[in-house]
Amino acid sequence: MENKTDYISDINPSKDSWRIVVKVIRLWHVPSYIDPSEVQSIEMFLTDQKGDKIQASIKREMIKKFRSLLNEEESYTMSTFGVGQNIGEGDYKPTSHAYKLIFF
Fold first, then answer.
1. Which residues contact 82 (CB under 8 A, 6 or more apart)?
2. Residue 22 falls within a domain, yes or no?
3. Got the DSSP string for 1-20?
4. Nearby residues of 99 by Cβ (< 8 Å), 6 or more positions away
5. pTM for the complete prediction?
6. What is the mean pLDDT of residues 20-24?
7. Domain of 76?
8. Domain annotation covers residue 33
9. Where are the alpha helices (DSSP H) in the chain?
10. Could you give the percent of the chain with pLDDT greater than 70?
11. CB-CB neighbours of 45 under 10 Å
């Protein structure tokens, strides 16, 4: 059975099953607005072997599962995520990719 991988440049919401090999180039925790001691989400910038970049978010419900598994400068195969619009105001859009990955 072939284990085909996709590239970041191909990602869009047209299908539900993607498999990418990426390196985490930046990872940070976003504190909760109500309680800054709690983590609201984990945000990441990912890159693939072609050098394309995409933003990824891990929502609060999944933080415990992923927190100890992900590190900056490490490579991973990722395959279970949603694809959403990468909406940013003006200069705040962190990557030029039209979409971002959402783990929930």
1. 101, 102, 103, 104
2. yes
3. -----B-GGG--TT-S---E
4. 11, 12, 13, 54, 83, 84, 85, 86
5. 0.88
6. 98
7. 8-103
8. yes
9. 63-66
10. 91
11. 19
